[in-house]
Specification:
single chain; alpha+beta; DNA polymerase, domain 1; Cytidine Deaminase, domain 2; five-stranded mixed sheet; 9 helices
Length: about 230
């Protein structure tokens, strides 16, 4: 039997949904957008306390969605169902961002490309090195994570990258890796590794358009910094 509390929760949910439909996500603070997101996983529970607890722990809607499952489960009120739901939302956001760049000229879709790389890598707790492979018209034909490493290092093998480019009939590359520390400033090791890849690629007439370093604090471009 439903009680007054159930009716109050239902009314609150309807008001949030109406606000979202009228003004979109921009009209809502992070905690309300997170409440909306949690509705599907918690159909009969007040989601405001959990939404606020998650934001207190992680800081923003994006950080909550991207948080590792194990850390999400440390928050009081969380369970496997809710954690799974948030991971599905994260995967959907990444898939949507990727759709905006695959099969399109990368150099003329630069903002979308950066948005995708940020969504895919900025909040990862381990370092990942991915390569974006482009055809002769600079259309993005493949996006592949080459290696995953530790909190501050991912092994990179220039010969393997060049070999994969030839397998894909790629003509150019954009290198991308993340800094889990959040600071996107290239390290000396990043610079040395990039030079090795450029040398290996040049021998086979492959262009390296840029190397992007992605962090929570933003991104760095080797080309913009004059390092490429």
């Amino acid at each position: 039997m439903s009680g007054a509390g159930d009716n109050g929760t239902a009314g609150h949910r309807e008001r949030l949904r109406a606000r979202f439909l009228k003004g979109g996500a921009d009209a809502m603070p992070d905690y309300e957008l997170l409440e909306l997101t949690l509705f599907a996983a918690l159909p009969r529970r007040d989601t405001k306390p959990l939404a606020k607890a998650l934001l207190a722990r992680f800081g923003s809607f994006a950080e909550v969605i991207a948080a590792p499952r194990a850390r999400l489960l440390e928050v009081k009120g969380m369970g496997e169902t809710v954690a799974n739901h948030l991971k599905v939302v994260e995967a959907a956001a990444q898939r949507l961002a990727k759709t905006g760049v695959m099969g399109r000229p990368a150099l003329s879709s630069w903002t979308a490309l950066l948005d995708y790389c940020t969504a895919a890598m900025a909040r990862s707790e381990i370092e990942e090195f991915r390569v974006l492979f482009l055809d002769r018209k600079n259309v993005l034909i493949a996006d592949e994570v080459q290696t995953r490493g530790t909190v501050d290092h991912a092994p990179v093998y220039p010969r393997e990258i060049v070999k994969r480019a030839l397998e894909l009939s790629a003509s150019a590359l954009i290198l991308v890796h993340n800094h889990p520390s959040g600071d996107p400033t290239p390290s000396r090791a990043d610079i040395a590794m990039t030079r090795e890849i450029v040398t290996a690629a040049k021998a086979l007439s492959l262009a390296v358009h840029d190397h992007l370093v992605i962090g929570r604090a933003g991104h760095s471009s080797f080309k913009s910094l004059g390092l490429l």
